[in-house]
From TrEMBL:
Name of the top EC class for this enzyme: transferase
Organism the protein comes from: Humidesulfovibrio mexicanus
Any Pfam family matching the protein: Glyco_transf_5
Pathway: Glycan biosynthesis; glycogen biosynthesis
Domain of life: Bacteria
Glycosyl transferase family domain ranges (all copies): 300-447
Domain Starch synthase catalytic as annotated: residue spans: 7-244
GO molecular function: alpha-1,4-glucan glucosyltransferase (ADP-glucose donor) activity; alpha-1,4-glucan glucosyltransferase (UDP-glucose donor) activity
Function statement: Synthesizes alpha-1,4-glucan chains using ADP-glucose.
Catalytic activity: [(1->4)-alpha-D-glucosyl](n) + ADP-alpha-D-glucose = [(1->4)-alpha-D-glucosyl](n+1) + ADP + H(+)
Protein name: Glycogen synthase
Family named by the database record: Belongs to the glycosyltransferase 1 family. Bacterial/plant glycogen synthase subfamily.
Gene label: glgA
Lineage per the UniProt record: Bacteria, Pseudomonadati, Thermodesulfobacteriota, Desulfovibrionia, Desulfovibrionales
């Protein structure tokens, strides 16, 4: 019996090794779910400086994997770890990846991001050549991996090794495209014929995501609604025309939630565990959270809201900031965890000074606190201007914390809005402070006026099932539709 055809994932971040956002959660779960469903999956990711690899037994495979033109004689180190039996290959090169952060500092993006991630793409392909068989599918994610579909599109013509390898590019956020000066295209190793408006060129610049969209065999994004939205100027970030041209290969597959990490029935970060139908455990988590946040006990009987996310325009944190004074006139608590734009961090901290008995703002990144906030709060706020999928609202649902969210993208696909039958949360159409505040008021009214109805909503929210198996099955169908016998 031969080896099963390989699906090789490429990602710039993967939980629990590295993470800046939802991309890491997706790559921490999707490949492993496929692997457990019998797909021969493996992942390639950069080896960053501060990485959580110790418990996974990292070992060096080669110190000198050639990367080819335009890098020769520079080489990559390749390491391997076994992640519950599935191979993870790490691409190392200190000068590119051994840095404090993954992509940027407060001062801006690293100046050599194009070179860093093109190096990652080329090292992945050269490493893949050293595996026994060419992968049946290379599944690339976001702009950092998006040149791989383009290389293969051109190499397949002359290199028999790649002739049967199909490429899938998943877009997690169209706002991040990897846009660089044109000269970097001509140094990239892609053929000059890719330099046109249906290829790598974007208003005179080299656009990595667009390049991937142009040449991938299949393009996916992370929710059905976002797959529609990105064909419009409002959400297309200038690529709506290109996406429309590739509409035939574009598909939206909803992300899943990894309930082995995010489930209050068995969560290592919580002071106590709980499940649907037993409100007591959640109450205890709330009391413990209020204590941890030094918020008054009186809030135990009042709704405590939360926001967890990057302080950026996408997440609508400015809408939240705008309504905080109004919100604080109500008898409610609010806990905000996140980091991002300095002006938002500063404004939130000022507001927290003014409303010390109601509002806590934690500027920073804390995986375990995120779990405790999800569990210990009552209403989860997510006023995103756009949301390709969004994982935090799925986690909030499972933790019995009904979300108040904008009706966009994956939020629309995962929340059943009150007062529809089977409601699991609250949504609003236009991302304005008034629209957001009105939706919060709906939630507060239900909380105050009809406690049994509130508790029924909490139970329904906890009963939602966004397990990865359902999404993984759709990816298997997709790979097979490309002819891969996975
Ligand atoms: P995005 O990827 O756009 O940031 P998602 O909802 O898909 O949004 O995923 C965000 C992920 O990052 C979740 O796992 C969330 O808990 C986590 N996260 C975001 N900000 C923080 C923070 N400040 N501390 C801890 N976890 C965070
Ligand atoms: C991006 C999107 C987010 C999505 C995540 C994982 O970061 O902003 O909506 O959930 O990717 O796909």
């Amino acid at each position: 019996m031969g080896i099963k055809p390989l699906v090789l994932f490429m990602t710039s971040e993967m939980y629990p090794f590295s993470k800046t956002g939802g991309l890491a959660d997706v790559l921490g779960a999707l490949p492993l779910t496929l692997f457990r469903m019998g797909v021969n999956a493996a992942v390639v990711t950069p080896l960053y400086g501060r990485m959580n690899t110790s418990e996974f037994g990292l070992r060096l495979l080669t110190e000198r994997c050639p990367v080819g033109y335009p890098w020769a004689p520079i080489t990559a180190e390749i390491y391997q770890a076994d992640y519950y039996g599935m191979p993870i290959y790490f691409v190392g090169r200190g000068e590119y990846f051994d840095r404090r952060n993954l992509y940027n500092t407060h001062a801006g993006d690293y100046f050599d991001n194009c070179e860093r991630f093109n190096f990652f793409c080329r090292a992945t392909l050269e490493w893949a050549r050293r595996l026994d068989w060419a992968p049946a599918v290379i599944h690339a994610h976001d702009w950092q991996s998006a040149l791989v579909p383009a290389y293969l599109h051109f190499w397949r013509r002359t290199d028999p090794f790649w002739k049967d390898t199909k490429t899938v590019l998943t877009i997690h956020n169209l706002a991040f495209q990897g846009r660089f000066a044109s000269r970097l295209f001509f140094e990239s190793g892609l053929p000059a014929e890719a330099w046109n408006m249906d290829g790598a060129e974007f208003y005179g610049d080299f656009n990595l995501l667009k390049t991937g969209i142009a040449y991938a065999d299949s393009v996916t994004t992370v929710s059905p609604s976002y797959a529609e939205e990105i064909l419009t100027p409002r959400f297309g970030c200038g690529l709506e025309g290109m996406l429309a041209r590739r509409r035939g290969v574009l598909r939206g597959i909803l992300n899943g939630a990894d309930y082995s990490v995010w489930d209050p029935r068995d969560d290592k970060f919580l002071p106590c565990i709980y499940k649907a139908g037993c409100a007591e455990g959640k109450k205890d988590c709330k009391a413990a959270l209020l204590k941890e946040m030094h918020l008054p006990d009186q809030l135990e009987d009042r709704p405590v809201m939360s926001f967890i996310g990057r302080f950026r325009g996408q997440k609508g944190v400015d809408l939240l900031i705008d309504i905080i004074p109004r919100l604080m006139e109500r008898e409610v608590g609010l806990i905000v965890l996140g980091e991002g734009k300095l002006e938002h961090e500063a404004r939130l901290q000022e507001l927290a000074e003014v409303h010390q008995d109601r509002l806590r703002v934690i500027v920073g990144y804390s995986e375990d606190l995120a779990h405790r906030i999800q569990a210990g709060s009552d209403i989860f706020l997510m006023p995103s201007r756009y949301e390709p999928c969004g994982l935090t609202q799925m986690y909030a649902l499972r933790f019995g914390t009904p979300p108040v969210a904008t009706a966009v993208g994956g939020l629309r696909d995962t929340i059943v809005p009150h007062p529809a039958p089977g409601a699991t949360g609250f949504t609003f159409q236009d991302p304005t402070p008034d629209g957001f505040f009105a939706a919060i008021q709906q939630a507060l009214e239900l909380w105050d006026a009809d406690k049994p109805a509130w508790e029924a909503m909490v139970d329904r929210a906890m009963g939602q099932d966004f397990s990865w198996e359902q999404s993984a099955a759709q990816y298997i169908d997709l790979y097979r539709s490309l002819g891969a016998r996975v």
